[in-house]
Amino acid sequence: MLTLGFFTGMRLGSLTDLKVRTLSNAAPDPSIAGLFRLAVGPGADPPVATKFGVTGQIWITRTHLDRLEEYVHSVRRLEREAKAMPQHRDLVFLSRFGNPYAQRGSDKSVAMNVEMHAFKKLAVANGLAAMRGFRFHQSRSTFATELARIAIRAGGAVNAIAMVKEALLHKHEATSLKYIRFVEKAPAKEDVANAFTREFLGLLSRRESTADD
């Protein structure tokens, strides 16, 4: 699920409500080879939970769609499906007890919190200290930021807003605009930070030289 968060920008609530039939109904993107669209929201068939009940399409690559379909038919998932209640058997992701990872429409999941805790513990043990405070939603933010960066380079800020809004299923353009502004301000912030660092290190060097004299 975490991989899909980074590569599709889907919220946890949508991922945990993703259906097997959603994958079967994936439609090729007409303009980009190797890219597919998954219908989500209350207006999709089958419906998939989204924030604010927005109906739209999620972008997913052929690689990730293939991996999902492979997982759906794996022994591991089929064993979980066999334990699930009838109304939950079409869910792509089920816990080892056959339960949904979250209540429908919720971005909170106790089961996922347990998984994330184990993941972060493993990451920190392998030297990735920055993962200590990592939260699942950051995968969505990362996807949105990188998409905004690419979209701005390709077609400017105005087109980027529309692209981010569509891909992230934002209800309001103002939400998408935050990512555009963040990306646009990032180089300036980096320049300021670098200038400050140079000045600060220069000041330290001068003080050390004075002290040596």
TrEMBL record:
Keywords: DNA recombination
Top-rank lineage group of the source organism: Bacteria
One GO molecular-function entry: DNA binding
KW Ion transport (keyword) present: no
InterPro entries with a match to the protein in the record: DNA_brk_join_enz, Integrase-like_cat_sf
Gene Ontology biological-process annotations: DNA integration; DNA recombination
Name under which the protein is recorded: Tyr recombinase domain-containing protein
